[in-house]
Design goal:
The protein has 285 residues and is mainly alpha-helical. It is built from 14 helices and no strands. 34% of the residues are buried.
């Protein structure tokens, strides 16, 4: 703490951001405070292998399009499936970090008496959220950033590096959207309910959300079936499925005829701004 007290503002920001970020890796399920480097590497490798395998399974037909049904129109569907699993995993991790999303009493008791402004306190907390989501998203999509350009090279009409960067950014935004959604739900319950009632409802809500994200993974065959023909027939599912919004945003940025995806981008913008606004409003409350 003496180091914190004697450091200039930028060092205080880094100190607090690191403090909050480390706390995400020290919850009841993922305790990384001891031997943090080794366990963090293990977690990153597991997510990376999962992302590599899932992406390969979805895109392997495009390596030999002559022998398989490698239709360019199906790329949206394949990307949506990958984003669905990525967002579901991020949702699970977010629920497991339920207690660390917002500052708790320990944070206020230990940090607020120090010469730290409330603005820096909340900015550093928000920065830690971004870093944690970036870590999870990077771990899962590290391989797919290279797989997409390699597997789909024959179907890509833009610069391959640009294509890879857009894929990474969109994947990060998709995972950030899930994290902010969980945070917004918690924020609403925090404002509406207090004390013991909130604790009971929060525990129940955690279980419901966790089961919901796991159910998305279990029901992937049904999701895949619903995605079949969704783009071609412009079904309601095409416009209402959140991972499809991000997949549509990606296609809109890398295809020559993105008009069909404009409504998806509109839905995405409204939903993203909505959860972000709820999160920012609930933090001071």
């Amino acid at each position: 703490m003496k180091r914190l007290l004697q450091s200039p503002g930028i060092n205080i920001f880094r100190y607090l951001t690191k403090h909050f970020t480390v706390r995400f890796f020290n919850n009841d399920v993922l305790k990384f405070e001891n031997e943090s480097r080794e366990r963090t590497v293990i977690m990153m490798v597991m997510l990376g292998v999962a992302g590599l395998y899932i992406t390969h399974i979805q895109l392997r037909d495009y390596l030999m399009p002559i022998f398989f049904n490698a239709d360019a129109e199906l790329i949206w569907k394949k990307r949506t499936i990958i984003l669905t699993l990525s967002m579901a995993l991020t949702g699970i991790v977010s629920v497991l970090n339920w207690e660390n999303i917002y500052p708790d009493k320990k944070d206020y008791v230990n940090i607020m008496p120090l010469p730290v402004s409330r603005g820096m306190f909340f900015v550093s907390k928000s920065a830690s959220l971004m870093l944690f989501v970036l870590f999870v998203s990077t771990a899962f999509n590290a391989a797919s950033v290279f797989q997409f350009p390699y597997y789909l090279e024959k179907y890509i009409t833009v610069n391959l590096i640009y294509y890879a960067v857009i894929h990474f950014i969109v994947a990060f935004l998709a995972n950030l959207f899930v994290f902010l959604t969980v945070a917004a739900i918690q924020g609403i319950f925090t404002v509406l309910f207090r004390n013991r009632l909130f604790i009971k409802l929060a525990n129940l809500l955690q279980v419901v959300l966790l089961v919901g994200f796991i159910a998305v993974i279990v029901w992937m065959p049904q999701v895949t079936k619903a995605l079949t023909g969704a783009r071609e027939n412009l079904t309601p599912f095409f416009y209402q499925y959140p991972p499809g919004w991000f997949s549509g945003l990606n296609e809109m940025l890398v295809t020559a005829d993105p008009v069909i995806f404009y409504p998806l981008a509109g839905n995405l913008a409204m939903a993203f701004c909505g959860v972000l606004a709820i999160f920012l409003i609930s933090v001071p409350l």
